[in-house]
Amino acid sequence: MKKREQQRQQTRATILSAAEHIYASNGFVQSSTQLIAKEAGVAHGTVFLHFQSQEKLILAVINVLGTDITTRIHESAKQSHSLADVLRTHLTAIEIHESIYSHLIMDMPQLPKEAQQTVIGIQSIIAHHFDQVLNQLKKEKQMKDLPISFIFNTWIGLIHYYLTNCGLFAPHGSVLAIYKDELILNFLKLLEVDKS
Amino acid sequence: MKKREQQRQQTRATILSAAEHIYASNGFVQSSTQLIAKEAGVAHGTVFLHFQSQEKLILAVINVLGTDITTRIHESAKQSHSLADVLRTHLTAIEIHESIYSHLIMDMPQLPKEAQQTVIGIQSIIAHHFDQVLNQLKKEKQMKDLPISFIFNTWIGLIHYYLTNCGLFAPHGSVLAIYKDELILNFLKLLEVDKS
Amino acid sequence: MKKREQQRQQTRATILSAAEHIYASNGFVQSSTQLIAKEAGVAHGTVFLHFQSQEKLILAVINVLGTDITTRIHESAKQSHSLADVLRTHLTAIEIHESIYSHLIMDMPQLPKEAQQTVIGIQSIIAHHFDQVLNQLKKEKQMKDLPISFIFNTWIGLIHYYLTNCGLFAPHGSVLAIYKDELILNFLKLLEVDKS
Amino acid sequence: MKKREQQRQQTRATILSAAEHIYASNGFVQSSTQLIAKEAGVAHGTVFLHFQSQEKLILAVINVLGTDITTRIHESAKQSHSLADVLRTHLTAIEIHESIYSHLIMDMPQLPKEAQQTVIGIQSIIAHHFDQVLNQLKKEKQMKDLPISFIFNTWIGLIHYYLTNCGLFAPHGSVLAIYKDELILNFLKLLEVDKS
DNA sequence: CATGAATGAGCGTTCATTCAT
DNA sequence: AATGAATGAACGCTCATTCAT
C-alpha cells in the first residue's frame, strides 16, 4: 500500500493549494509562511518539510501556475487560426488564474529571478502565436504596418492594466470574465485597416 | 515670530523629500521608516511626529506626487491642441517622477485604498484631455470609432507596461526618455484612419 | 533464527558508526540527528528507535570511544615499563580517535554528566599506570619530588591543549602524529632530575 | 542634562553584564539572546538595538573580558620580576573572570575568528612576559634547557585543564582560588634545576 | 518640537521528538 | 523493526510604533 506516499503528496498539495490561495488574496510579498500553514491546517514547520524555504514555495506555486497556463495556451492554440483566436486563447488561459496571475505581475520585481522566467515563458509562447498570425495579416495588408513587438506590448499592457486594476474595473469578481470579449473586439478594431 | 512653525514645516518637507527619494529607489513596501529618517537626517521618532503612521507618510508622498503630476499636466495642457500634444504632456509629466510613479503602480494593491484615489486623480485629468481631443477627432472622422475609454486604457496600459518592465526595456535609466517618442508615434498610427 | 536480532544490532551499529563519524567532523553540539540518520542511510526515526534520545546516542558513542581507548591502553600497558612507554601508550590510543576525542573534551560542559564519567574513566586508567611507574621512579630518586596528581594533570593538560588547538598546531591533519614524539621527549626532560 | 545618554549606556551595560553572566553560566553557544534579554530585564529587540547581532554581542563581551584581563596583566607585570610573579599575575587576572574565561576557551572553535584573536591577544602578552623572565633564567642556568614555547604551552595547558574541569576540581566555586598557589609552586619546582 | 531608546509582535527557519503506517 | 511525515517550541532578527526626556 502506498498510503504514506499518498498522504505526503496530499499534504504537499494542500500546502501548495493553500499558498496559491493566500498568494492570490494577499500577493506574494505580503503573505507569511505562518499564515499559509494555518490556511493549510498544518504545523508551521511542515511547510518547510515540503518546501525548503519560502522562496522555494513561491517558485513552486508560480511554476504550477506557469505550467498550467502555458499548457492551456498550447492546447487551445491548435485551433487558433485567426488573431481573435489567439487573443481569446490568451485571455481564457489567464482568466482561470486571474487573481494570482495579477499578483505575480505586480510583485515580480520583488520575486526571485526564476519567477520572472516563468512570466517570460508565458509571454514567449503567446508572443510566438502573435508573431505567426500577425505576419500573415501584414503580408495580406489586412493590418496596420506597425512593429509586431509594439502591438504585442500594447496588448499585454492593456491586459495587465485591467488585471492590476481589477479593484477598479471589477471590484467583486473576475475582470476578464466581464471584459474579455470587449477587449478582444476593440483590440481587433484597433489593428484593422479601413477598407474604404 | 513664526520661526517655530517655519522650522516645523521645514522638517516635514525634509522627511517628505527623503521618503520620496527612498520610495523611488526601493519601492513603498520594501522601505523602512528607519531608513527614511536616516536619509532625512532626523530622529526616527520625528517621522511619526509629522506623519502619524507609515501609512500616512506614504499617502502624503503619493499625494505630493499626484499634485505635482496633475499640475504639470494642467499647465502643459493649455497648449495641447492635438492628441500628440496630450500624449507628450502626459509622458513628460510622468517622466519627471518615473521611478516613484513606477513603484506606485506596482505596489498599489499593497497600499491603502486612498493611494488608489491619487492615481485615479492623475488619470482623471489626463482622461479629461483625452476626451476633449478624441471627441473632436471622432467628429472629424480622423480617428477609428472606438470607445474613448478603451483607447485611454490602452494608452495607460501601454505606458504602465513599459514602466513596470523598466528592467527589461531600460535596465540603467529612464524608460520614457528612451521610448517616449516611439510610443507616441506608434500609438498615433494605431488610432489613425487610413485615408485611401 | 536470530536473524531479526542480528539485523537490529547491525542497524544499531551502523547508526553508532555514522554518529561517531559525524561527531568527529562537526562536534557533538553542532551535529543534528537528521544528519546522522542520513549518514547512516536510515530513516530519521530509526535513530530514536535504537537510542531513545539524542542524549542517549551521544552517550553511547562516547561510551564506545571510552571503551576502545581504555582497552587499547590496557593492552599496550602490559609492555609499558618505563614512563616513556606509558606516555606513548596514552598518545597512541588517543591518536586513533583524535578528532572525536578532541570534540569530546571541548564540548564536555554542554554534554550530559554521564559523558564526564567516561572521560574520567579513560583518565583513571592512564592515571593508574602513571601512578605505578612514577612511584617507582620517585623511590629511585630519578624524578622530581612532586605530587603525582600534579604531574598527571600537567601531562593531560598539555595533551588537551594541543588537541583543542589543533587548528593552530596542525591545521590539516593530526596534531598527535606530528607532535607525539616531541611532547613525550620534552615532558620526560621536564621530570628528570639532573645528575650533576 | 545627559540623562538620555546615561540611560542608554546603562541599558547597554545591563545587557552586556547580563550576557556576561549568562555566558559564564551556560557558555556562549548554548545561550540565547532571548534568555539574555530576560536576564537583563529588557525586551528581546533591545538586545539588537545595542548590539546588531548575536555575534557582535558575543564579541563585545569577549572584548570587555580580553581588555580587562590584558590590562590587569599589564598593570601587575610592572612589579613582576620573577617567574613566580608572572605566573601569579596571569592566574590572578584570569581568576576574576574564571567561569566566562573557561567557557571562552572551550567554545572557541565555534566562535567567530575575532574571538580567537582576543584569546591569542591574552596569551601573547603573558607569553611575552614568560619569554623575558625565562630567557634570563636560562642564561643563568637556573632553569631546565627546554624550548620556551614548550614550557609556555605546558603552563597554559595545565591552567586550561583545571579551568575546563572546574566541575571536577572545584564543583562549587573557583578552581583558581583553591589551586592557584599550589599550581604555581609545583610548576616552579618542575622547571628548577637541582642544585645538588 | 524633536529625540532616539525601548518595545513586542512578527518574520523565516531549524530540529529533536513522536507516531501512524 | 523500520519508516518518514508531522509537530511545535525555539531560534536570531526586523521594524512600526510609543513615550520619557
From TrEMBL, chains A, B, C, D:
A UniProt-annotated Pfam family: TetR_N
Keyword line: DNA-binding, Membrane, Transmembrane, Transmembrane helix
Transmembrane segments: 146-163
Domain HTH tetR-type residues, every copy: 9-69
DNA-binding positions: 32-51
Gene Ontology MF terms in the entry: DNA binding
Protein name: TetR family transcriptional regulator
Gene3D superfamilies reported in the protein's UniProt record: Tetracycline Repressor, domain 2 (1.10.357.10)
